Structure formats: structure tokens, C-alpha cells
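Budget justification note: compute hours in this period were largely spent on complex prediction jobs such as the one shown. Inputs:
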Amino acid sequence: MNPTMTKKLLLTLLAWGIALIVFFPIFWMVLTGFKTEGEAVATPPSLFFEPTLAGYNEVMARADYLKFALNSIVISFGSTLLALIVAIPSAYSMAFLPTKRTQGTLLWMLSTKMLPPVGVLMPVYLLFRDMGLLDSQLGLTIVYMLMNLPIVVWMLYTFFKDIPKDILEAGRMDGAGTLQEVLYLLLPLTLPGIASTGLLSVILSWNEAFWSLNLTTSDAAPLTAFIASFSSPEGLFWAKLSAASTLAIAPILIFGWMTQKQMVRGLTFGAVK
Amino acid sequence: MIRPHFPTRFLQWGTPMRERTSGRTVGGFRNLFLQGPAVTLLLLWMLVPLGMTLWFSFQRYNLINPMISGFAGWDNYTYLLTDPALWTAMGNTLLLVGWVLAISVIGGTLLAVLFQQEFFGRGIARLLVIAPFFVMPTVGALVWKNMLMHPVNGVFAWLSNLLGLPVIDWFSSMPLTSIIIIVSWQWMPFALLILLTAIQSLDDDQVEAARMDGAGPLAIFWFITLPHLKRAISVVIMIEMIFLLTIFAEIFVTTSGGPGLASTNLAYFIYIRALLDFDVGGASAGGVIAIILANIVAIFLIRTVAKNLET
Amino acid sequence: MATLQLNNIVKDFGGTQVIKGVDLEVKDREFVVFVGPSGCGKSTLMRMIAGLESTTSGDISIDGQRINDVGPADRGLAMVFQSYALYPHMTVEDNMGFSLRLAKVKKAERREKVLAAARILQLEPLLDRKPRALSGGQRQRVAIGRAIVRNPSIFLFDEPLSNLDAALRVQMRIELARLHEELDATMIYVTHDQIEAMTMADKIVVLQDGLVEQIGSPMELYHHPCNRFVAGFIGSPKMNFLDVEVREASSEGIDVALPGGDCRVPVDGSGISAGDTLTLGIRPEHLKLDDEGPLTGKIVVIERLGGVTSLYLEHGDSEWILVADGDVAHRVHDQVRFSFDPTCGHLFKGDGEALNHLHRHPLVDIDRKQNRVSSASDGQ
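Corresponding output:
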């Protein structure tokens, strides 16, 4: 065997070894989801077993699981949609009509991300209590929208700035007004960027656990809270926990895999391409 | 004679571009209209709670005991600052952030170099290795707690037995370390994802030129790859810092800050004060401290971002 | 029918004037080229005409109508961008028909007009492709086609050939000249390449630092540059310059001192007196190797192009470029003597202004259109 081939094989072994170790917890969780509760806690851990959907059936059968899932969907997609609606005009004006203040505004927006949620937990909690937004879908939607708005504006700004100015000018020479420019040129050209921005916002909202644990109790609690509720009755429902967890992370994992390239660019403000 | 600076003016920040357009309504009004909603919302989101936190921090305010009220002066702060628990929590916060940053950045850099090489099934291996970043923190923490680190039924316990080593009860004997491991597992893939993308933009010509100059793989890594990644690494550190300073869910579902205060960070400490002790004043004072801490980081952070933007 | 007038146009970018008062008259069906070094304001000037930049002061008029405040789409102009600026998500046909679609032209009519333009540019087989599936030259033609479809009164070209390779550039140059003839439209063309300017223009506008240096036909600029900048900018290789002392000056001509003897240049020397220092300019192609010549130099570099050979000479502080016959046998380090026909010499004053030639070159008033007319009548 030639040395390059040997090197490649060794690399394959090493890289796959690491990849499998890093992925193992997820793999083990998915596997446990197909076990019975008994097998799930068995020592030694059983790798080969008769798969069962019992865990899934039980999770799906619990009416509240669907409620939690629905809350997650409504809140994360709702907040993302709101954030996009507010952010698109803002990013448009920053990218295409920049002024002296644009850079300052962008950095200031980012700086609001620096405000640690714990620092403002108390006022937000009390305001929400007084406005009746505690444990409501609307309340969490608003919080997530505000939480993700700076990142959404930043990412959109990065993607918009990538559009050559010439193309929009050509559009104006061809007679496109602002609305047509946005509809016929800007949106089609930046659709991948907008989509991945939206997906990142969905991912962040879906996985968020500070506000959801503190601002909801039952009615509006999303999946993060549902999963967290498994932490107390220790060791009792591992198969069910795994099944529920698998359901909760599967869509997000797929979104994440799909948009990783674009996300990196947006997340790093275009610094990494 | 020729002004080379002229065309680049278009690319710079702060160039008044208003004059660029004619036959269109432009300028401040239009920008105000477009940016207004986002700016107003964020302004409210920042100022109202911030102001209230500051206000509460000088008040006696307990949710279950309305009898306690009135102006507290610096009492909340002195009480908090003399409470050794705050300092433990601060120390834990710094340990947590520092260790996770070190592990994820160094590990992420090395893995990025590894996963940049040609090998069989590279695409799939890459997907597997970045997956933990997308996993819900509560899920990740619970999987580690129950299925891997559990002293009786966990995979680690089984492995220790197999190798004849003593079984470790992770969360009671080394709670903070356990949490650092879990959080690093989540964030190293993030560093890897960013750095891998950055490494791909490294010019092959540069590497080949270095090779022609007699650089070995280590020299190439040290003198070419690492400087190329500098910017990406600073971005990774910044973003991770934002999230790591306020780690909450992982502690909430695993150790609940314990045993004792062994794994309580600032975020969890304030949470205990606020929603378990119902001490709004004390929690708010803690919040102000957290904000100050975050701002020290933010100054460094914003500077770096601004620098990245300019180039 | 479209004429364009610029009347004392000024452009100010936040305190910096980039266009400092430009006057220009473009006649109907004329091919006008703006040329100048980068940063001279030529692109800004075109963008102001297009309406993409506002005008700080002065008037822009098309057919006598002031259009300063008319939007870019309503000026009846079409522009071909340097980067082509094709819409990447639309097919060639949709790219070309976009303006009509925005103007709510019916689909059938739109297609007809796009097809007509595509026929002129031989784009018919490409109509269903997306821009990324086209070569550079094809993209260029689509960009031109998009302009043609709008049936504009004036075409604007912003350095359209600069992204093409050398061979394609020559081909597109010819194609554009042919198109100008076929469409019979007014065209304004921006370039930094003086060869493009010389070969295509009816009228060249040389710009520098936001000001017009000279306006004239290619032959006028070549034979009668009005200052040293234009003399150096037009023509390739660049004109040679040498500081000389005046022996004698009158309105009949000026005698200047050269190392190997005096020489009389036929320019109007009124106001110049003996002892003044002037700059003598001679184009490399007007220098010839001559063993009796008044000038001498050592060969530093020889570039053999086959048909002609460029000799780079050095003499003391002065450097010369001489375009000689292709078969010249000299080698590097040879010492050579050379001379020139004094009627081809130019003299410039200290401030760069040229002294007027006593005789106008017979071809200076010919523009490309007249070239065309005479050749057509020759054919009959």
C-alpha cells in the first residue's frame, strides 16, 4: 500500500473515531428511545435488543406532550416571523442606505445581546405578571423575538450587503420602484440567506431554556420545559425521556445540518465565509 | 492629481450616501421609517428592564412578604457583596466560562484541521461531529446526566467497571467539572463549525508557497493556519462568551447548583434569589452585578467586532 | 433623436468636489467616449447622466429638457454596467424583458421585442439560460441586449469591456461599433483605455480630476493635444517629453536647442521669447533612427513586436521610447542617433498648455461617421 493511502486510512480512522465519540450521546439517546424502560437502565448497557416503539407511543399518548410540542412550534416560528418582519426593512435600510449612524446602530443592537437575561429577569417577570403575559404563548414569543432581533438584523444585513449594488441600480434603470426592487430582485436573490436566518432564529428559540423555564409553568411551556420536567423523577423513565428528546431535537438537527454553511457566515457577521 | 482614495469612499462606513440617489425619497426620514420599529423595540427591551432592575436593586422588595418595602439604599448591595455565596458563584462563573472556552477553542481548532483533511466519508463525519451544537441544552444535559454519567446505570460507570476502575459519581464528587464537560460537548462543535469554514477559505497557494519555503506540517499550522484563523477564533470567543456567561439550563436540570454551591454560577445564583427566595431587591442587585460583569466583556467584544467589520 | 447637454455640472461628495464644472454637448447619434485615468470622475459623470447620482449643481438636459429631477428609469436611457449586473435568478429572456415587465407590457409583445434584440446580438439560442451558464462575452451581449430592448434614446456604457480578455475585447469593440451603426443611437461610453476611445469614438472627452481637459475627435486629440496631459494620455506608447531652451521665437515658429543642433517647430510662438524653457513632445512613432540625427541615446530594452520594434533609450536623465521598423538589428547597450520630423513635434509651456500648431492636420475634423459615409460612397 502506498504511503498516501496509509495516511488517508489512518486519518479516516482517527476522524471517524472522534466523530463517533462526539456523536455517541445523541446516538445512545436515539437508541434508548427504542428500548423498554427495563432495557434502558440495564447493566451492562444493551446494544442489541428488540426495538420497541413503546416509549414513543407513550410520549405521543400523553396529551400534554403534543401541547408542549405545539407551544414550541408556535412560539419559535411566531417569534421568528415577527423578527423577520421587523428586521427586513431595518437591514434593508442599513445595507442600501447607509449613513454615518449605521455602524453605531448595528453595534448598539449587538450590544443588547450582551445584556445577560438574569440581569433583567426580575423586571421582565414582574412586568409579565402584571400584564398577564406569564405562562402565555404571546409573552414568550415576544421575548424570543426581542432576544433574536439583533442577530436576525445582523445576518440579514450581511446577506443584503453581498448583493452587488450594480444589480439594484440596473433594476432602477429598468424602472423598478422600491417595492418592485424588493419583490423581484432583493427577495429572490437573498432567499437562501433569509431562510437560513429564519432557521437559525427558530433553532435558537426552540432550544432556549432560561426564559422558557422562568416565564412559563404549564399552559405555554415549550419542549425545553417538558424535557426539564424529567430531571426530578430520576432514572424512572429513560426510554420515554429519550423518545421525547429525540422528537424534540430531530427537526432542529436537520435544520441545523441544512443551513450550517450560511449560518456560519451570518453568525460571524460575514467575517468567516 | 489622481485621488486613489475616492472610489473606496463608497465602501467605507459613515459615507453619506444620501446624495447617491435622485428621483427617490431618501435620507433620514426613510431610514427612520425603516429602522424605527427594530430600534424602538430594542430600545424598550433594553431600557425598561434595565431601569427597573436598577430601581429594584435599591428597594426592599419581597414577593411573598409585602410588609418589607421602602428604599433600601445600598443595603441590597452590601448584603450581597458580603455574602460569600456571591463570590463562590462569580468564581464558578469564571471557571465555567474559562474552561469551556479553552476546551472548545483549542479542541475546535485541532478538530478543524483534522476534519479539513481528505478522508473517507468526510461529509458524514463532519455532520456527526457538529450535531451536538443543535441539541437542546436541556436534552443534552439530561442525556449526559442519566445515561452517561449516572453512577449506577450510566455508560461511564459500566466502562469503569469493565476496566476495573472505581466508579465516579460525577455530579456529587465533581459537579462543576461535569457541567464543564457537558457544556464543552455542546460548544466545541460550534467552534469546529466556524473554524472549519474559516479554514476552507485558506488560500492553497499560501500553503504551497510555505511548503516551497521548506515549512513542515507543524510550521504550516503555526505560521499559516493559525494566523489565518485568528479572526474566526476571536469571533468564536465572543459569541461563546455571550452564551456561556449565562449558562442556566444545564445547571438547572443536572445539579441545581449543588451540592451546596459547588456548581452555582451567577445566573443560577440570581435565579435562586429571585424565584426561590422571592427577594426581588437582592436579585436585582445581583442582576446589576451581572450586567456590569457582562459589560466589561462587551467592551472588549464590541471592539473586536468593529475591527472585524472595518477590514 | 436625442441630444444631451451638460451645463456646468458639479458633483460634491460630502465636501469633496469630484466633478468640478463640466460642460458638454452631445449631438444626435454621436458616439462619445469619456476617457481618463481612474478617479478622474468619468464614471461619476456617467452615473449623473443616468440619474444614479444626484447632481449638486448645473443642468443636465436631454433634447433641451432639463432632467435633473427625473428618475433614472424615466430619462429614456439604458445603461450597460461594467459588471454587467445581470439578474442572476432570471433567464436571459427575463433579464432582457425585465424593464418591459415592469412597464406592464403584454407578454407577447415583450417576447417579440426581446427576440428582435436577441437576433441583433445572436443571442437566440441562449434565451432560456441563466446568466451563470454564460461565458463572459455572452453575458456582455445580454447586458447590451437588455439595454437595446428598452429602445433608449441614449445608451450608456460604463467600462463594458474591462472584464473581458484581450481577444474578446477587440471583437466586442468591433461589434459595438457595428451596433452603433445599426441602431443609429446616441451612445456615451466610459473607459480608461485610450485605444477603445480612439477606435470607437466620434468625439472623445478627456477628463482629469473632475475637469474636462479636451473634447475633440480622435485625430484632433492625437495631432493637436491642447496640453501635456492629453498629449501623454492619448497615444501608445506614451509621448516623449524633453525640456528644451528656446533659441528664437516668432508667430512663424520656434527654434529650440537640441543636443545635436537646433530645430524649428512650426507652432505659434507669439509671447515666447528666446531663453525660455519649453517642453518638447514627440510621439515614439515619429522618432526615427538616423545616424545624422540631433538626438542620441543608449538602448536599455528592446521589445520586438514583429511588425514594429520599441526601443527604450536612455540619455543622461532623459528617457526615450522610439518605435522603429520591425527588422531593426540593434541590440541592447548599442548607442544610437535619431531624429524626427519637426512638423510632428509639440511644444508645451511650463503650465502644460500646448502652443498652437500653424497647420491643422487634414484629418482632424473627420469622425467615425464620416469615415463610414465616404467608404460607403466609395463602394458605389
